[in-house]
Design goal:
mainly alpha, globular
């Protein structure tokens, strides 16, 4: 049950950031903007040169091809879970999570054309 809760929370956080990024991009040329806390979260991605929408689209492809690795990314990157927490949530070993994390990062780096974190 906890696995589903963490997975749902991480996926929801990702979707909230993606939706906010889309709205922000849509009103990019609308003069003064009111900054909300989600802008700070998006700024963290932007500081690392990441486009949240492009990341989301790449993660959707990763989910289709490698679902567990995509879950690891959601839980670590958007959920803020540590390797042991992800392992416990998914019912796999820490070593498996580390391998999945490494694979997913390389896979995403290849799709996003950068050095992503």
């Amino acid at each position: 049950m906890i696995c589903y809760l963490f997975a749902a929370a991480s996926r929801t956080m990702r979707q909230v950031l993606v939706d906010h990024a889309r709205r922000r991009r849509a009103r990019k040329r609308d003069g003064d903007r009111i900054r909300v806390p989600l802008d700070r979260a998006l700024a963290g991605f932007e500081e690392r040169g990441l486009d949240v929408i492009a990341l989301h689209e790449a993660l959707e492809r990763l989910t289709q091809e490698h679902p567990r690795q995509a879950q690891v990314v959601d839980l670590r990157y958007f959920g803020g879970l540590s390797v042991p927490e992800v392992a416990a949530t998914l019912g796999v070993s820490d070593t498996t999570v580390e391998a999945d994390w490494q694979f997913a990062r390389a896979w995403l780096r290849g799709r996003l054309g950068g050095s992503g974190q």
